[in-house]
Structure formats: structure tokens, C-alpha cells
Write a structure and sequence with these properties.
By secondary structure, the chain is α/β, with parallel strands linked by helices. The protein has 2 domains: 142 residues, 3-Layer(aba) Sandwich (Leucine Aminopeptidase, subunit E, domain 1), CATH 3.40.220.10; 322 residues, Zn peptidases (Aminopeptidase, 3-Layer(aba) Sandwich), CATH 3.40.630. Helix content is 35%, strand content 20%. The chain is built from 13 helices and 20 strands. Strands 7, 8, 9, 10, 11, 14, 15, 16 and 18 form a 9-stranded mixed beta sheet that branches. The protein has a 6-stranded mixed beta sheet with strand order 1-6-5-2-4-3, sandwiched between helices. β10, α8 and β11 form a beta-alpha-beta unit. It is elongated, with a radius of gyration of 24 Å. The two termini are 35 Å apart. The relative contact order is 0.12.
């Protein structure tokens, strides 16, 4: 499904509308009749800030914004996105198709945030429903503003579509989205978005000796893939590419170290959410034609205990020649990410960002309320990433990469082992990945927010598409520097 966000150059009557008001505004000048104005004043006295008027043929939403003056810009924008979610629920409950938002130069960002929250809340995944009775009715969000703002509206539409795509990939069952079909889906989306795409097959991966990815794939009948997406505009501001790496484990049983926890495998189709995020983000960058050179690498496989599965005790020679003692086959994400991070060296990148549903430790530490990150990038880059995370409410919590954690992954048998023990699990996973880089790098563990078991506002339920908005807005900020 698609929610259309469209520039509008004139007011259309009869549509569901939103007014962002101050308590000092003369409500009569905003088109409310005496009865409606009296009703609004009554609600205001009762402490209501968000009010809905049902005109039968349309809905009118009024949000008084006075109480938001004490909040910072990040908190305000999130409030407006959540307002968009509320509006979405009401529009769909009353079976309307269109919403009209009016934006002036003074409130454009707030109105765009409402549209963003409303559109993201409108996502549904109904592919496997034989009866689609719950289908949302909202089809269009019209934004009445000056033509100068049309580009921002177009970019928002592109970003919403990318988040939808990432969510759908995460929500697809492995019975449809295996490593091969995932690569095909990413390639098709890339080709439609001005992005070059290449998919390496199993023979090519064997020739490259990508030991980590191939080891994880040993238990599967479906071959692995390694997708390379490249967007290199002629007017790129950067000579050295920004490389995005995403974990593409389309289903994770834990391998021979079978996941022991009750229901822990039920949602493991989401273990490719990192790959979905970076693929969707680079495609959004390409479609928006942002002037930045970006590459995305997505190694993909499922992790199963069958066939000739790799075992605890095995020693794996990785793509760059380093050796790993496998002590837990459920620590598989770092194995294929390590190969991709080492492969990224060939591009001489200016910065590498990897996204992965990597550890339960990260999810346990901060829940679904943010993303754990760590890395070797400059403080300036880290601050820009954190600021962007606050802007889109995909907040980042930086964990340390102290040298002491490296001792926990030392192996008596090989160069390193693939787990570090019962403490600092998110960090020892990061220290493992750090062994494969020689460039500025940040690691993002999205295990908490990637898949939501209950509805969380406009982030929805199940696949959230986390990382797409962060990356797109981060790259936009780099373009503006």
C-alpha cells in the first residue's frame, strides 16, 4: 500500500483538516461558527489541548500548541508526529480518504512532522490476509503551502515510501523472503531509485573466501547472497564514499546453538532489519538525488542447524584471513558483518556505518526506546549522528569500546572467539567487529526497536523500519555541510 503526500496549491473544502492554534487566536476568524467556537472554549477551560470536531462530511482537528513552548525542538517535532498518529486513527475510524494540512513559513516543520506521523501510522501489512476488512481508508495527505516547499514534501514522500519498504521486508516471512529473494527485492528497488545494484552468488563468495558468511550458510539449503548497492552522483560532495553495512540474516534459529528461550524464534524473520534499513535508506537517497556518494553492503543468509551446519568449536577463516573460534553459532550476525566490514576496505571509505539486530544484550539494556551505538568515528560525526537521532526520534545511546572488553574475546585456539561471555554482550560484539576495520566506523545495534510486539504510535507494530529515517536525514545533513 502507499500513502500519498502531495503538494497542494489551493484550499479544498470538505476535506478533513487540522488547525494548529494558540489560545490567543480569534477562533471566529479561523472559520468556526459560534457553536463550534463556544465548544472549543469550553474544552479549553476543561484543559483539553487536542480537540476533534465532527462535521459529518469531514473532521476538523484543533491542536493548541501553547504548552509546547517549554519543549526543545526535538521534543516538539515528536509531539507533532504523535499528533499525526492520533489524526490517522480518527480519519480511518470515520472512513475518510483525504486529510488537508495547511503550512505557513512559521510552522512548516511542524506540519511536515504531522504528515510524517500520520503517513507512518497509516502503514499496514495485509498481504497474507484473505479478508482485508481492516484496511485503512486514508489515501492522501494534502499539504497546502507555497511552491517553494514542494521539494521538502517530495522528499518526505520518498522517505515514507522507503520506511514502508523496509517495514514490509521485515514483516515478510522467510518462506517468501529468503536470501535470494531478499537480494532480488533490494535490486529491484535500487534500479527504480537511481542506484546501481550487484548481487554476488555463492560461487563468487567462495572465490572471495568470505568464510564468515559461508560458515553461517552451511546449515541452509538456500545459498547466501551479498548485495552491493552504489549511488554515485556526479555532483557528490564526498570523494570517499559513505559505506552502509546491514545484517541480512533472513531467519535465525541459532543454528546448532538452538535458541533455548520460549518463543524466542517466533520473530526471527526480523533478523535482517539492518539490511532492510541500509538498502531502503540508500534507495531513498538515490531517488531524492542527494549529492552524496553512498554504498550499501548486505550479506544475507538464514542460520539453521541442518545440512552441514557449522558447529561450536569450529575455527573459521574470515574474508580478511583472520581466524575465529566459534563458541556459539547463534552469534552469527557478527560473522557475516565482519566479512562485509573487511570487504568495505576496498572502497577506501570516509566513514562506515553498520546496522544489525545483533544482540539481546542491547535490547535488554535500553529496550525498544533507542539504538545502542559505538565506534571509532570522530566526535563531530558522533554528535551529528546523535543530533539526527534526536531529530527523528530514533535516539542513540553510545556504549564504550574500552580495550578491556577485547580481552573477553581472546581465544586460545584462534585469533579471536565469537562470543565474550555473560557480561557486556553488546560491547564485546562491537569489539569483535572492530577487529575488521581500518577506517572511521560506527556500529548500531537495533535489536530493541527493529521489531515491536505492541503498537508504538506511528512506529506501528512489528517491523518499524528503524534506521531509514536516521540515515536519510544524516546524509542530508552531510550534504548541507
Amino acid at each position: 500500500m502507499e500513502t500519498i503526500i502531495q503538494f497542494q496549491n489551493k484550499i479544498i473544502s470538505g476535506k478533513c483538516t487540522l488547525y494548529l492554534c494558540s489560545k490567543k487566536d480569534n477562533l471566529a476568524t479561523l472559520g468556526f461558527d459560534k457553536n463550534e467556537a463556544a465548544y472549543l472554549q469550553k474544552k479549553l477551560k476543561e484543559g483539553e489541548q487536542y480537540i476533534l470536531i465532527n462535521r459529518l462530511t469531514s473532521l476538523v482537528f484543533i491542536q493548541f500548541t501553547d504548552d509546547l513552548s517549554q519543549k526543545n525542538v526535538f521534543e516538539k517535532l515528536e509531539c507533532f508526529r504523535m499528533l499525526g498518529h492520533k489524526i490517522n486513527v480518527a480519519v480511518n475510524a470515520h472512513h475518510f480518504k483525504d486529510l488537508l494540512l495547511t503550512a505557513s513559513e512559521n510552522n512548516l516543520e511542524e506540519v511536515l512532522a504531522v504528515a510524517e506521523g500520520c503517513a507512518l501510522a497509516n502503514y499496514e501489512f495485509l498481504k497474507y490476509k484473505s479478508e482485508q476488512k481492516n484496511k485503512h481508508t486514508l489515501e492522501k495527505i494534502l499539504i497546502y503551502t507555497t511552491p517553494a516547499n514542494k521539494k521538502k514534501i517530495t522528499e518526505l514522500q520518498i522517505l515514507i515510501n522507503a520506511v514502508y519498504t523496509a517495514r514490509t521486508w521485515v514483516n515478510e516471512p522467510q518462506s517468501y523472503l529468503n536470501a535470494v529473494s531478499f537480494a532480488k527485492e533490494m535490486k529491484a528497488f535500487a534500479v527504480a531509485s537511481n542506484v546501481k545494484a550487484e548481487v554476488l552468488n555463492k560461487k563468487q563468495l567462495e572465490s572471495l573466501k568470505m568464510g564468515g558468511l559461508l560458515a553461517v550458510n552451511l546449515g541452509s539449503k538456500t545459498p547466501p547472497t551479498f548485495t552491493i548497492l552504489e549511488y554515485k552522483p556526479k555532483n557528490a560532495k564526498n570523494k570517499k564514499p559513505l559505506v552502509l553495512v546491514g545484517k541480512g540474516v533472513v531467519y535465525d534459529t541459532g543454528g546448532l546453538s538452538l535458541k533455548p528461550t520460549l518463543h524466542s524464534m517466533d520473530t526471527m524473520k526480523c533478523d535482517m532489519a539492518g539490511g532492510a534499513a541500509v538498502a531502503a535508506a540508500i534507495c531513498a537517497v538515490g531517488e531524492a538525488m542527494l549529492p552524496y556518494y553512498v554504498i550499501a553492503l548486505i550479506p544475507a543468509t538464514d542460520n539453521r542447524p541442518g545440512e552441514n551446519a557449522y558447529t561450536p568449536g569450529d575455527v573459521i577463516t574470515m574474508f580478511d584471513g583472520q581466524t575465529v573460534e566459534v563458541l556459539n553459532t547463534d552469534a552469527e550476525g557478527r560473522m557475516l558483518l565482519a566479512d562485509a566490514l573487511a570487504y568495505a576496505k576496498k572502497y577506501n571509505p570516509g566513514l562506515v556505518l553498520d546496522f544489525a539486530t545483533l544482540t539481546g544484550a542491547a535490547a535488554a539494556a535500553i529496550g525498544s526506546y533507542g539504538t545502542v551505538c559505538m565506534g571509532t568515528a570522530s566526535e563531530e560525526t558522533k554528535n551529528l549522528l546523535k543530533s539526527t537521532g534526536n531529530l527523528v526520534h530514533e535516539r542513540l545511546v553510545e556504549f564504550p569500546l574500552w580495550d578491556e572488553y577485547a580481552k573477553l574475546i581472546k581465544s586460545d585456539l584462534a585469533d579471536m572467539k565469537n562470543i565474550g561471555g555473560p557480561v557486556g554482550g553488546a560491547i564485546t560484539a562491537g569489539k569483535f567487529l572492530e577487529k575488521y576495520i581500518d577506517y572511521p566506523w560506527m556500529h548500531f545495534d537495533i535489536a530493541g526497536p527493529a521489531f515491536l510486539n505492541t503498537t508504538d504510535g506511528y512506529r506501528g507494530k512489528h517491523g518499524s523500519g528503524v534506521g531509514v529515517r536516521l540515515l536519510f536525514n544524516f546524509i542530508k545533513s552531510l550534504c548541507d555541510q
